[in-house]
Amino acid sequence: MTATLSRPTDSAPASPVSSGLARDRQWVARVAGGAVTGEGAPRHTVCTPLTGEAVAEVPLSTLADVEAAYAVARAAQPAWAARPMAERAEILLAFHDVVLTRQPTLLDLVQLESGKARGQAFEEVADVAIVARHYARTAARTLRPRRRSGALPGLSQVVESRIPKGVVGIVSPWNYPLSLSITDALPALMAGNAVVLRPDVLGMLTALAAVEMLREAGLPREVLQVVLGDGATIGAAVLDRADYVCFTGSTPTGRRVAQAAGERLVGASLELGGKNSLYVAADADLNRAVPGAVRSCFSSAGQLCISTERVIVHESVYDDFVARFVAATTALRMGSNLTWGYDLGSLISADQLDRVGAHVADAVAKGATVLAGGRARPDIAPFAYEATVLADVTAAMTCRDEETFGPVVAIYRVASDEEAIALANDTAYGLNASVWTRDISRGRRIAGAIRTGTVNINEGYAAAWGSVAAPMGGMKASGIGRRHGEEGILRFTESQNVTAQRLVPIAPAFGLDDRRFAAALTTSLRVLKAVGWQ
Ligand code: NAD
């Protein structure tokens, strides 16, 4: 099938890409003008994985541009932090509306740059809107100054307040070019920080379009600076200057980023890789578990940190589940155009295709059985690969323990919940898990024994991801820190304890000498415990 960049069927205003504007120098120049790029900067040719065609040429940033971006962001941050929280919230709520109204543009761009199916591109639009609304509505409550108990009742008046870190540096990857470039920036900004963002070059048009929408919603240009370029130089330079480091990417790169942040003694949140399991328990409703597992394994062609790569099935339902899962996987509709109505898009790049092909070839050479898929599909798109189900995968095979980050899953049979838990935990990673059971209490018990930052019961990944009032992130080698929930905004602040002492000093008091003061305080502490003081 030859891919076409056909006009989408959305009824909303025509998008720049679908009406051909991505190829229009003016449109690209305007959007790219949203980044800090200097004279004589290198240029990057954006090619779409949908067809392999070049669709735009974008100037990149230099190290001097990174410096300039930080200078502007630093100068603008105090005034931004001084603005009332309600004004910042208004901007996020306006952005929410712009994103939903202009979704055809964003969907086109996400598809064009990532190659994913339109329905999965929509996940990113929904995510951005949900996160914008959430922090607009909750930040004032989360960040409000709080009175705390003093050392001794009545004598110390304590207020804990939250102050912004300053300038937050964000490096985001290519796989969710809209979500991951913007949803960390939103709480950082809401908390009064300025941000310097370096989106991946493979998703930069999407990020730039979203930043343009945020500015249209009222965000001062200075407080969100965008620079463009590779990870090792421009990405590292962004993080090296940040008052707080926010990185999403692979575990090996995350370790390097953590080392550099540790050296400078600045905080960091690192959202890293995963090797995620989905367990189908003996009492699972297979009518829900089969389509749910297929979505969880093959969304965004498996290029999703929280998607499933291990499917673990209780032996009592194994044969039934596997037959239906393989049939549903084989029936997935592949596609490569800017329309709704297909399930599986393309991988993003030749590198990804090589990695996925190598994992499957290695497994097959060592005795794995291919139950579905297993082939590249250049007839669909240059880097397309079939949804692939493997059985008989052993520890000798790369795909047993390494993250494939593609549409390849291995299926395992277990005899008990305990065996399933042990297999789900038998990995260096700890990002996401999924449990399918009719008994939610049993699901919660199993979840409690799995060492991952999120566990979805009767869903693959979207339930916990979309429930942004609660934190998500990785345990073990899947990262440090959390996005979403209170933790997702508190990380961008420093706490400050301001305590005013009244009437008498803390020590020594009442004209007592040291020894008598210690005796009096000891008595007071005993009384405080007895009366239930905190
Ligand atoms: P990667 O680590 O190679 O690159 C990630 C990003 O970091 C890229 O944009 C790259 O340009 C940049 N980078 C590279 N070296 C850098 C450095 N020294 N300093 C600063 N930035 C640098 O990962 P990848 O293969 O491009 O992305 C896929 C990985 O990301 C997978 O492991 C996936 O699981 C993970 N991921 C995790 C989450 C999460 O929320 N936990 C989300 C998406 C992706």
UniProtKB/TrEMBL annotation:
Keywords: Oxidoreductase. SUPFAM superfamilies: ALDH-like (SSF53720). It comes from the Bacteria. The keyword Oxidoreductase applies. Residues 1-21 are annotated as: Disordered. The keyword Transport does not apply. InterPro entries: Ald_DH/histidinol_DH, Ald_DH_C, Ald_DH_N, Aldehyde_DH_dom. Residues 43-498 form the Aldehyde dehydrogenase domain. NCBIfam families: PRK09407.1. This is Succinic semialdehyde dehydrogenase. The lineage of its organism: Bacteria, Bacillati, Actinomycetota, Actinomycetes, Micrococcales.
